[in-house]
Write a structure and sequence with these properties.
Layout lengths: L2 H5 L6 H10 L13 E4 L2 E3 L7 E2 L1 E5 L2 E6 L1 H5 L7 E4 L4 E4 L1 E6 L1 H6 L12 H14 L6 E4 L14 H7 L5 E5 L2 E4 L1 H6 L15 E4 L5 E6 L17 H17 L2 E9 L1 H12 L6 E7 L6 H12 L2 H4 L5 E9 L36 H13 L3 E6 L2 H16 L10 E4 L5 H10 L2 E4 L1 H15 L10 H7 L2 E4 L18 H10 L17 H7 L2 H6 L17 E4 L8 H4 L4 E6 L2 E5 L3
Parallel strand pairs: 1-6, 2-7, 8-14, 9-10, 14-15, 15-16, 16-17, 17-18, 18-19, 19-20
Antiparallel strand pairs: 1-4, 2-3, 4-5, 7-21, 10-11, 11-13, 12-13, 21-22, 22-23
Helix pairs in contact: 10-12, 12-13, 13-14, 15-17, 17-18
């Protein structure tokens, strides 16, 4: 049966209700048909409104048929039903990652494997190794090797890059910013007299003599790289890599993702996998829309997204839910837009005491873009890391709400929302603005952020507990951008590491906890990666909790997340992952 046919089933039949009355088990099984799979003798954590826990669950035809005691659910067992003895193991709803970039992540190591880089020495060794085999004049580039995660907590200098590859242009790219060598500057005609075009966000850092240091803010807007000699992939190879990544998502219990900057090519790839029956995760896409150029053209581009059939027609496998833009730079690179100055910094090579980061879209230009998205029935979200960017976007949402636009109904979103304030937390809850936050950033970057800003200024850094307490909706993600492997990826997408970080507020290379008053309970952490993400992605009526009639996306775990020791949470393994009632991953059980 086609996915679209299954997706269309959402109402109880009279026959199903009659079966429920006769058996005492709530069920949606068609004409009382037996279950395909029954998982029993376990701990079924529904993550429903009451957070109820049961012994057994029955699934069939892609749906959850019944949940209850072993004896109740056993009434749906037929001669062909697969019966799985959980032996006390925990079952939870399929986990969701509200922020991924699958097509680029899956291809990151297609040409060659990328070594782990935890120091400047590692970075320079990699560049030297590429220079030794690359044709003279070919570019050597890196991407998303974040300085916050290097032991030295700084950019490699222009001089270091020159020494590592004197005959190759080099760009050490880290998010929107970069450190480049002299040849790269020369090829881009960036010298002491260079001026970034008017209206283009960015900054060229200069030394005391007015010479470019090699540090470029928002470099993609005015700096170009060239041929690296990397081999090109065929469509078949790209498809194989994407399938491999999705299988790896399944291996850590992920059944639904959001591509938070999807191009049309990526969306078409997901749809082709769906049509071929090869898709093992559900995909909600925020289509990327550029913010530079003529405003009227940008608004036309937004309206075009709203007309795509994957937005207008409900599909439980692939759906366009809205658009994504970029409002500021990054905290990992020194360009997030803050309400107060960053402060002078050797870490980020900041020499201007008044520097507050980079705001890519002025508020007066942002507002009509958001208005167009909301009027078109699209969820608007923007990469907003710094508290200055978060407040700017919240102000726009607040003003449009007062004008009568359906901000709450379209689930307007703030992506990243790392640096917040008490006011922004309360505003998000009041307006119904949803938040897309990645705990792995707290885990990997706290050491550097505390060194740069001090502990007190980080009081509302990823304030998860406050958001829950205010009645806001926040979902957990990873911002997975590079590599296949839940812990080896540059931004790890292992949801159990994310839960452990949200619960403990403990970070790599950092003693103690970062504002433990913002730690989630275990129940909240499970909601964070299940039903809350479902609400972010307009799926809560179909997925995100284990309830009769919902899609049969669920995970069997080797660990009881509600009772295990804290240091065991991050080590949790998925033993079985089901998507649409089909077993897509199994290990040792």
């Amino acid at each position: 049966m086609k996915p679209a046919t299954l997706a269309a089933r959402g109402t109880f039949t009279f026959a199903a209700l009659l079966v429920a009355l006769l058996t005492g088990v709530t069920t949606t099984s068609v004409r009382g048909a037996p279950a395909e799979v029954i998982l029993h003798s376990g701990k079924i954590v529904t993550v429903n409104d009451k957070f109820s826990i049961h012994q057994a669950i029955a699934i069939g035809d892609g749906r959850i048929l019944a949940i209850g005691t072993d004896a109740e659910v056993a009434k749906l067992k037929g001669p062909r039903t697969e019966s799985v003895n959980l032996a006390g193991r925990m079952v939870i709803p399929g986990l969701m990652d509200s922020h991924t970039h699958p097509t680029s992540a899956s291809m990151y190591e297609f040409d060659h494997a990328m070594p782990e880089m935890e120091s400047i020495a590692d970075v320079l060794a990699y560049i030297r190794s590429r220079a030794a085999i690359a044709t003279e004049g070919q570019w050597i580039t890196t991407s998303q090797i974040f300085i916050t995660r290097l032991k030295e907590q700084r950019y490699p200098t222009r001089a270091e890059l020159d020494a590592a590859a004197p005959k190759h242009p080099v760009a050490f790219q880290t998010g929107p910013d970069a450190s480049v060598n002299s040849l790269a500057l020369q090829l881009n005609k960036i010298d002491r007299h260079f001026q970034i075009p008017v209206g283009v966000p960015g900054k060229v850092e200069k030394d005391a003599n007015g010479e470019p240091t090699g540090i470029l803010r928002t470099s993609a807007n005015y700096f170009k790289t060239g041929n690296t000699g990397a081999r090109s992939a065929t469509e078949t190879e790209r498809t194989e890599r994407l399938i491999a990544l999705f299988k790896d998502y399944n291996s850590v219990g992920i059944t639904t993702i959001s591509d938070r900057n999807a191009g049309l090519g990526a969306i078409e790839s997901y749809a082709k996998l769906r049509d071929a029956g090869a898709l093992t995760v559900r995909v909600s896409a925020s289509q990327g829309v550029g913010s530079l150029g003529e405003l009227a053209k940008i608004q036309d581009n937004i309206r075009a997204v709203a007309k795509h059939k994957l937005h207008t027609e409900r599909d439980d496998w692939v759906r366009i839910i809205g658009i994504k833009m970029f409002l500021d730079g990054g905290m990992l690179t020194g360009s997030a837009y803050m309400r107060q100055p960053w402060g002078l910094s050797e870490i980020y090579s900041i020499t201007d005491p008044q520097y507050r980061g980079v705001l890519f879209i002025p508020k007066d230009r942002l507002k009509p873009m958001v208005r167009t998205a909301v009027e078109s029935g699209l969820q608007f979200t923007a990469h907003s890391v710094g508290d200055g960017a978060v407040h700017t976007l919240m102000e726009v949402y607040d003003e449009l709400t007062k004008e009568g636009l359906p901000i709450r109904q379209t689930r307007a979103c703030v992506t990243h929302s790392n640096f917040m304030s008490k006011e922004s937390v309360e505003t998000a809850a009041r307006l119904g603005v949803v938040l897309d936050i990645q705990p792995a950033w707290l885990y990997l970057d706290t050491r550097t952020l505390v060194k740069q800003f001090g502990y007190d200024r980080l009081r509302y850094f990823q304030p998860l507990k406050s958001i829950f307490a205010a009645g806001g909706i926040v979902g957990g993600g990873s911002d997975h951008m590079q590599k296949i492997g839940s812990l080896r990826s540059v931004n790890p997408y292992n949801p159990f590491l994310g839960m452990a970080t949200a619960i403990t507020r403990r970070a790599k290379w950092h003693e103690g906890q970062l504002h433990p008053e913002e730690a989630l309970t275990r129940e909240q952490a499970l909601r964070f990666y299940t039903i809350n993400n479902a609400k972010l992605l307009f799926l809560e009526d179909r997925a995100g909790s284990l309830e009769v009639g919902k899609l049969a996306d669920l995970v069997v775990l080797d660990t009881d997340l509600l009772t295990c020791l804290e240091d065991k949470i991050a080590q949790t393994k998925a033993l079985r992952t089901y998507v649409n009632g089909k077993l897509v991953y199994r290990e040792g059980f």
